[in-house]
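Thread: Maleylpyruvate isomerase family mycothiol-dependent enzyme, structure

OP (GT): Posting the sequence first so everyone is looking at the same thing. Length is 216 residues per the record. Can we get the structure tokens written out before standup tomorrow? I want them in the notebook alongside the other entries.
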Amino acid sequence: MWRVIDAERTGVAELLAGLTDEQWERPSLCAGWRVREVAAHLGIGPRARLGWVLVETVRAGGGFNRMVDRTARREAARRSPEQLTAELREASGSRHLAPGQKLGYAMLDILVHGQDIAVPLGLDRAMPLEAARGSAEIAWRIGFPFHARRRLRGVRLAATDVDWTAGDGPEVAGPIAALLLLLTGRDGAALARLDGPGVAVLDGARSHPSGGAGSR
């Protein structure tokens, strides 16, 4: 997994290095964040230590999501695009995990956030299939922060490019990368790339969201 994480960090850093100032300010797929905040968030994890996380969580009022949002916004405001890009590039090769983070979650994080940046900019960023499949399984299995099994109850997810399925009901089929975006709450971007009778079911459910959209 570390090889995938290293390659993805390097690849996203290269993508960031080629962006214009205007593209850095564009909204990402991650709710409420621009490209700039996503880049800042990706650079924080490899540097975060337990004491820092505890202090920042207290400062944020005790909520993990508030802490993640607050620190990403602060670091994005403090650093230039060049600094944010350099921090992510330097993280390649690091074997440090943020406190409480498992290796699979770190892989999922960089895969999805790379798409959070690329998709709204109209840039094609391929996901390694096996890594995407493993990340999809993690996103389906865990509860917080995606709540995928609850949000996607009543449909069957089926990848068309790797052997992966989950759930029961009308089928939602497509590339594993699109399914991973769906699992992590990027519904609008995901459903545009998916087919099957279950898509209509999910489109109808979007008017009554159950949480997790664009989860970080």
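GT: Both are above now. Quick notes for whoever picks this up: The beta strands are 156-159, 165-167, 171-174. The radius of gyration is 17 Å.
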